[in-house]
Each structure stands twice: as structure tokens, then as C-alpha cells.
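Researcher: Structure prediction, please.
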Amino acid sequence: MPRDPSIKKILLIGSGAIRIGQAGEFDYSGSQALKAIREEGIETILINPNIATIQTDPNLCDKVYLLPITPEYVEQVIAKERPDTVLLGFGGQTSINVGILLEKAGIFAKYGVQPRGSSIHAIEATEDRELFRREMIQAGVHICKSAAANTLGGALKIVEEIGYPVIIRVGYTLGGQGSGVAHTENEFVEIVERALAQSLNSQVLVEEFIGGWKEIEYEVVRDHADNCITVCNMENVDPVGIHTGESVVIAPSMTLTDDEYQMLRSASIRVIRQLGMIGECNIQFALHPTSLEFRAIEVNPRLSRSSALASKATGYPLAYIAAKLSIGYLLPELMNKVTNITTACFEPALDYVVVKIPRWDLQKFQRVSRRIGPQMKSVGEVMGIGRTFEEASQKACRMLDIGMRGLVCNDDLLPPLKNLEDYREEMRCPTDLRYFRIPQAIQAGLSIDEIYTLSMVDKYFLYKIQHLIALEDQLKSLRVTSPNDEKQYWIQEAKKYGFSDGQIAYCMKTDHLVIRHLRRRFNIVPVVKQIDTLAAEWPAETNYLYITYNGSQDDLEFKSSNGKKKIVVLGSGVYRIGSSVEFDWGCVNMALSLKKKGVDEVIMINYNPET
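Model: Predicted structure follows.
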């Protein structure tokens, strides 16, 4: 089925200002969507007042309106431009919310505008918690015991039936805003009053709290002919109760059995079919750690932060494909541009590991709690890629740019806590430093079993961290004067598990340049690998690369320049307060300008999955 020929002009609603829970990932998704649509010769109109974004550049769309994303201003643009189609799924919660208001006000019907991709029904069914409950029941997917309330009195009646603890969720909000876990009536009243004030439809969902269950995410794609694939599944290292934007996330999942993986995959496909979504959606599940019992927690009927991570982790251009599907194409008709052999209907396979770690800037605020929970506080995230969980985690820890050498070897940078009880409290009530405190807790004497009981971080990850500690201890027993064969073996082993030259030097009490010299003398050098989407089953033509010491040869053939001009552009890395999407805009425009000026190869170095 070719694209719908009736579509002549499309309005894309952007995400507006950068804020916690809504950052550069929506500039990325919107830019990809505009690119996909313009390829079809369709006129594109964009509303987005954020001048720091790539998508507001005039070369990406036909017309840009730098206007507030409110129903009044969007209606003015619709009245002037008369688009036949509107896309709501590429501008985050801002776009979703204004789309619902325009639909309820009859604006889309008045001007004959058809929402595509993220349909109004799908949006309402996922954002209205009572409708969500009904749809999940129809899909045969279990959810937590819950009920919706519009008043504090109604909420109190519900909690009497469910019992404490409960989590209060809010529809039509961003980053878990207004949500919270209540263990007592006083906590419950405070959270519900705040949640009702922040809810777009004056509704909250009171839900049984299943903190400690595993949180698993699936990115699912569906077309008009009901073809469905799961592009990526991701596992939150932190359990349910910690917002996914606050959690360390790994792709693909590491601790699921095949039965668990297939069970949740099938449930994901049932959910997207029940909702009638065309394009992409993110589905979050809670899985009991010792049984096959699971619950659907949330569905995002749009591109999300997790979608951007999944796109970069797999090499599958989710936003680009979702835009093509929204204008009528089918998955088998779209080519996988990485292989140029397979279609977009092939599910990606990964022969590497991706670890995402959030970046917080809480130290810049006085009296702010460092506790993390169901509401987002992080302002950015990084993505480490490697062949093992340890390697990818260590890379990601350094990418945070907070001074840490890696996941381990940080005792002089992050002073250990005073006693075991302090570590128990950190495991029980996590802060933004939890990921770095776990290795310290193991070194201080807490057992893996106790840390698991307190934190509910799966033992698989705890044993991997323990392995890094064992490597650290081994390196500390080495010196520059140790036998060469011993140094060569342990330096090579350390590099395979993500230790930097600086980490090794810290352990061996020497300088990183000494380690670099030793490494090169022992011919311990990295190789370049491709993100090829199909685990090397097919030849790839991707320019999306990572470096690892777990390999024997490069995936690419590096020839001499032969007179070619090559320039490296250094990205700005993780988002933080004071450094955000504006530097992505600068890097992209630099790369495009260099190509226009005749530079043969522009090489970008960055590790931010939101860009």
C-alpha cells in the first residue's frame, strides 16, 4: 500500500520549551518525522517556539511558526494554513495535551483536520486512567488494582478498599508530575491534593503499589495492515517505584527468561492492537521477580525518551518509520537503510549491550531532596555501548561528566559512608548516587542477598558489579614492576570490562600515560564495531559506530585518506543545566555546513541518546 494520496499538507506540533521529562528527544523525533514526510513531497507546517531546536531550521520544513503551543494559537495556524493532517505523536506530552483540547473543542472537525498515528482514541485511552484500565482488560492484560477519583473524598474511599501502600498517578502530565507513593493517610492526602491540582482532567488514579517488581519496557510498531513488531525491549535496573527516567536502563533485557520475554512481547502486541495505534508506542510492564505474574503499568501513545534510546540502541529509526506509517505505508514496504536488504518489518537483534544512566544536577539547589522515586528529577542521560554489562556501565559512568572514573575506583572521589546502617538506608531509599553506592556497600561488607532485599536490584546486576570490584582488587595488587605477562593479562582483562587507562593507573598507583604506553606495547588496542540492527546476520552499511576492547578486528576497513578531507566534530555530551539542545543544534549545523563546503567525511563524537 503506497502512501495516502489525499495527504497534501501536514501540521506537526512540537514540544516547546525544554523541561524535566521533555528534552532533546522530541527535537530528534520531530526532525526525523519532518524528514520522512518531506521525502514524499508533502508540505510540512511546524509549530514550535523553541528556537534552539534542529526542527525549527527552515531547511527541515516548509513553514515554521514560533508560537506558543496552546489551543488558541494552534487554531490560528490551522485556520490560516488549512492542513488536512495533524501529527501529535512527535511533540511529547505538550503536543498530546493540546491535541486533546483541540479535539474536545471541535477544532479538528471544524477545519477538516485528521489526526494520524497517535489517534485521539489511543491518547485518551492511555492518559485517562479509567479508560486505560478498561482497555487493558479488553486486551487481556492484567493491571494493578485501581480506581479513578475526581475528589479527595472519592480517593479516600478507594484507598480504604485497596489498602496501603498505594501509588497515586496523574493523567496528562509529564515525567510522573504529581505522582507519589503513600504509606499513610497523611502522605496520601498531601499527594492527592497536589495531584488533583496538576491533572488536566481533574482525575487521579489510586493504584496498589507493587514496588520491587522488575520494570520492563517494549517499543512496539504497528501499521494499517496490523503488522506488528517489537523493536526493542529494555530492562530497568531499578525496580518499579523509580521513574524510568530516573532509572538505569539496559537494552536488551538481561534477566528475563525466554518465556518471560515472549510473554511480555505478546502482551505488548495485544495492547497496541487493542488501542488501534498506527506508528510507535512505548509499553511499560511490572514483572514479579520470582513468578510469571505481570502488570501493565503505562502506555505512551507517542515517541518518548525511551523511544529515542531504543532508536540509538538498535539503529532502527523509530520516529522516521512511525512518520512513514502514519501517512499510509506498511512495514514490509519500508527498507531498512542499515542493511538495504531487509525491510522495516524485521525485528532488530543486538550483539552488544547498551546502558543508559540519568544525569542529575541536584547539587545546584539548596534544600532539595536527593531521593529518587516516581517523579523525574534528572535533566539528561548518557548511553554507553559495549559487549558486556560491565563495559557499557563503566563507559556510561564516565560519560556523566561528574568526575567519576567508572562504576568502581571512586573512593577518593565519593567518600564512603560512615557505617553499614547508612548503606542499608541508601539501598532502601535510593538517591541519585545509588548506582555508585552499591559497589561501596559490597566493599563495606553488605552481602548480595541483603542488598537485593533492600534495593530489589536484580542479583544478576549485583554479581556483575561484584565482578568489577574483584577486578579492581586484582589491579590494586599489580605494580608497574610486576612481571610483564601478569600485567598484560590483567590490563587486557580490565579493558574488556570497561576500565579506562585512568582507572587502571589509579589502582596501580601510577600515571595514565604509563598505562597507555604499556597497553600499546602489549598491543592492547580497541576495535571499531557497527550498530547494524541484525547482529551481523546481514552486511551493514551503517555509519553508527562504537569502540570496544572485546573484539579482534574492525567492522570497517580504514584506508588511508587519499587526499580526502576529514573533520571531527565534538558533541556537547550529556544535557545538564546550562548545556542543552542548543549545542546539538550547533553541532548538526556545523556538520551540514562542512559537507556543503566540500568536506568528504564529517565524524561526530557524542554519547547523548536524546540528540
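Model: Residues 561-611 form a domain with the Rossmann fold fold (CATH 3.40.50.20).
Researcher: Thanks, that helps.
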